[in-house]
Amino acid sequence: MKKILKYLGLPVLMVGLFWSCEDLDVPITTQLTPEVFPQNSTQYIQTTGPVYSAFRGEFSFSWWWSQSLTTDEAILPARGGNWFDNRNYIAMHFHDWTADNGIIGSLWDWSSKVIGISNQTISILNQAMPAGEEKNTLISEVKTMRAISYYMLMDSYGDVPLDTVYGDFSSRAKSSRTEVFNFIEKELKKAIPNLNAASGVTTYGRPNKQTANALLAKLYLNAQVYTGTQRYNDCIAACDQVISSGLYNIESRATYLQMFYPTNGPQMKEFIFAVPYDPSAVTVGFNGQMYHARYDVPRSERAKFGLPFTPSAPRSTLPEFYANFDDANDIRNRQWLTGLQYMNDGVTPVRVTTTKKGYDQFYTGSDGGAALTYQVDLTPNIVPRQNLTLFDLGNDEIAWNMGYRNIKFYPDNTSTNRNQNNDVPFLRYSDVLLMKAEAILRGGNETLGQTAISLVNMVRSNRTTSTAWSSVTLEELYKERCREFAWEAWHRNDMIRFGKYEGQWGYKTNTDTYRRVFPIPTNAMVLNPALTQNEGYPN
Description:
Elements lengths: L1 H7 L3 H4 L25 H7 L1 H9 L4 H7 L19 H7 L7 H27 L4 H25 L19 H15 L17 H13 L1 H5 L4 H14 L25 E5 L16 H5 L5 H4 L13 H4 L13 E2 L1 E2 L10 E5 H4 L11 E5 L1 E2 L18 H4 L4 E2 L17 E5 H13 L10 H9 L13 H11 L6 H7 L24 H6 L12
Antiparallel strand pairs: 1-8, 2-7, 3-6, 4-5
Keywords: Cell outer membrane, Membrane, Signal
Pfam family, one: SusD_RagB
Subcellular location: Cell outer membrane
């Protein structure tokens, strides 16, 4: 969404200059101060841009890695040493990560930076803007972004420090998960009256009233996990606010896949809050990219998708997760690449020419250098043929074709680099309906004439031509969430709530319950001596 990103795209560095020019030892002829910027509505909105740029920074990297690779949804093994990366990725699969894991460190650093930039932006707007509705709305939007970031931090690490004051760099001890939960709830409730009631182009990429209500629903649905107290009726009430707004609808079976295309955006009827991406956007100080095609498309299918680069293709799903896609009439099956591969005409085979040894590195025949052409066949199982200890599949065609691949965020062949134009949803309307259904199944009250089964069928009727369900259990609802939100970074959250996170899948056997939260990263504890390590992890 180029126009949106340009409108919000004031460089991140600019915010850091607002209050820091007066101590320079050289004469200053031009100074960015509150007296000259921000001074009008456009500039006020631009001032909030760094918050959204920062949020985009690691949303499709450390957030995705931590929420998906730790589950049966995705795995990223090494292939001939490629993607071993100090064991960062495969440790997520085995649940044996440490406080020095790079993904866990990046997740903490990123979410903390978004919170810090939000605090700075709120301080700037409080000083620069005149009192009124516009000020209340902009500050409430930024506070909602801060609440989202605190939700991610609390969900991932449990007890975390609470810091809402810009310029206070003193060490802060952790607040309890319940205290952080209560802070997020209070912030969202205070923000809702001031947030924009509209959806679509005018609010796209920024939180509106229903963003806050949908996040409240997510908070309440997981309250038993976070605080030990169930809040299912509160979850239902928050869902009802979104439903009653009349702003959103379920995309039809014909448009489900289009929700995730490079051409998606504010026209998508299900997007409550999405993160806009633009291959040409520069995010100073952050990654800010979305590389799904790079990670998910097989190397052999560059031509099929018309990509300007050869994808790395290191990650795939596991057979246990793919088993949920067992309805032949379900449109969601089409987000996967499986089995024998064909070009987009569905007829021409995708073929690779290599050697016998290049196809199978363990081939022992004397003609290993002989040419071999084969049709690409993606296989479901992940087998560490080269080295079990390093979890290395090998560096041959057999290894690179292991694992079914997800292309929900369809490859963007219009981009001249690896970054994609696909916006990524964080909260969708189908999630609201399925959260309400789950809250009812867990003991909440039916409202608005809606039952758990009617809510589930509202989603399913737009996904499959199979007969509607006559009843639904929590286990069936869990599988429906697997189908609906694959590759959208909610699966860890779901597995923990459904008591499945300590299960066994792939090669993972660790059942430690303390790993429901990540360790406080080593670097964070060095920077903030008041932090203590989470229970179960070594200090």
